[in-house]
Specification:
Blueprint lengths: L1 E7 L15 H4 L3 H7 L2 E6 L10 H8 L4 H4 L3 H9 L8 E10 L10 E3 L7 H15 L4 E7 L2 E6 L26 H14 L3 H8 L7 E8 L7 H5 L3 E4 L3 H9 L3 E3 L12 H14 L4 E6 L1 H8 L2 H26 L3 E6 L16 E7 L12 H7 L2 E2 L5 H5 L3 H6 L1
Parallel strand pairs: 1-10, 1-11, 2-13, 8-9, 8-10
Antiparallel strand pairs: 2-12, 3-4, 3-6, 3-7, 5-6, 11-12
């Protein structure tokens, strides 16, 4: 038996008036998902434990079977594992976004326009991070380049402090959301002077693109420690994702990390490459489990783009799920496939919420006559509810004993 998770990051949503009160998942044309739904278990899963911030970090840990209350030590430390940043037990890791701020006002009075700087390319970001490193790298703070707008800072003998998530304050004046720590605040202010008129940003402005004109620190955490995936589940697992967070979780769990050329976490990622990589690792390399993470629906939710969020869901259906399903059927291998988001990223608020998410669980060996479709409304009607999201992987692996204990 082969096991597959296809994770549409931030895919679920809330009813939207311009869609006649439907969600993007209800409106999107998803013939492959529709076909699977007729022969699948449909339900809702709570992936965010009560009292924890809704994020891709806690939610994806849940879907992978790690209780965030036990294993979560902060978002950026997981990314540090992917980037290759060495962390001592006394280090603190900080996520370091390149963001777009308004230009007219004094720094504290600026507005945050874009948490991703128009999905700046990794190549452009490299030059900007090099300028930051030249100015700020020291015995205390070390900066590391990541992917696109997502970068990292290691703070020697630092402390975990509350820091605002940039995607939570889009369109707001930053004054009340700046770090209380003077050194971090100083670096953010100075970064604007370094970046705003950097040649990369001048070129971006000429192209009508958002500048990456400031650092934004958030996601502080300590060195993580995960139980190895194979030790925990007795399955050889692989991760396919464009983002350092998911790669870092996989590295921490000693899963195989597969880098797909052209996979960049945007709407125009290499969907087909991810599907092929999934089939290769299952059928050629003989792995038991693969986790295919697609960031695009979440990014479109953060951007507030209804059209592109629908498009991202349709791309997931036709360019990832369909080829994987067809490849598995052609191989003759028996398989179970779980399709779900990690959390909602509703268009109306452009950030994450902790509402339960719909899941679809398909088993190639089981014949069902299911009359529910796959979306938020139908999942609720089904009556199937998984209260502890970290147990859904036991459902995928059909581990009834673990499900009963949970």
């Amino acid at each position: 038996m082969k096991y597959i998770v296809i994770l549409g990051d931030g895919m679920s949503d809330e009813p939207i008036s311009s869609l006649d009160g439907k969600t993007p998942l209800e409106v999107a044309e998803t013939p492959c998902i529709d076909l699977l739904a007729k022969n699948s278990e449909i339900g809702l899963a709570y992936t965010i434990p009560k009292g924890m911030q809704p994020g891709s970090d806690t939610a994806n840990l849940s879907v992978l079977g790690y209780d965030p209350k036990l294993y979560y030590s902060g978002r950026s430390p997981l990314e540090a594992l992917s980037i290759g940043a060495h962390m001592k037990d006394t280090d603190i890791s900080l996520r370091c976004n390149l963001v777009t701020l308004s230009e007219e006002e004094a720094y504290e009075d600026k507005t945050i326009i874009d948490h991703s700087s128009g999905e700046i390319t990794t190549e452009e970001a490299k030059e900007l991070v090099e300028a930051i490193k030249k100015e700020f790298d020291s015995d205390i703070y070390t900066f590391y380049q990541g992917t696109s707008y997502r970068h990292l800072t290691i703070w020697d003998k630092g402390k975990v402090i509350d820091l605002a998530q940039p995607h939570d304050i889009l369109g707001k004046i930053i004054k009340e959301h700046l770090p209380k720590d003077d050194a971090l605040k100083h670096m953010m202010k100075k970064s604007y002077d370094i970046l705003n008129n950097h040649p990369i940003n001048i070129k971006r402005r000429e192209k009508g693109l958002n500048k990456a004109n400031s650092l934004w620190f958030w996601g502080a955490g300590t060195k993580p420690s995960l139980v190895l995936f194979e030790e925990k589940n007795h399955k050889k697992g692989a991760m396919i994702s464009a983002v350092d967070l998911l790669k870092g979780i996989a590295i921490g769990a000693d899963m195989k990390v597969i880098d797909v050329p052209g996979a960049n976490g945007t709407l125009h990622t290499n969907y087909e490459g991810k599907a092929k990589a999934a089939l290769d690792v299952l059928l050629e390399d003989d792995y038991d489990f693969v986790y295919v993470h697609v960031e695009a629906p979440d990014e479109m939710g953060h951007q507030g783009s209804i059209t592109n969020k629908i498009k991202a869901i349709e791309f997931l259906d036709q360019r990832v799920i369909k080829p994987i399903m067809e490849g598995m059927e052609k191989s003759g291998a028996q398989y179970r496939m779980l399709i779900m988001p990690d959390h909602p990223t509703p268009i109306h608020c452009r950030t994450h919420t902790d509402d339960p998410v719909p899941y679809l669980l398909y088993d190639s060996e089981v014949n069902r006559e299911n009359h529910y479709s796959y979306n938020e409304v139908e999942a609720k009607k089904s009556g199937n509810v998984i209260m502890n999201g970290y147990t859904i992987i036991d459902r995928l692996f059909a581990n009834e004993d673990k499900q009963k204990k949970s």
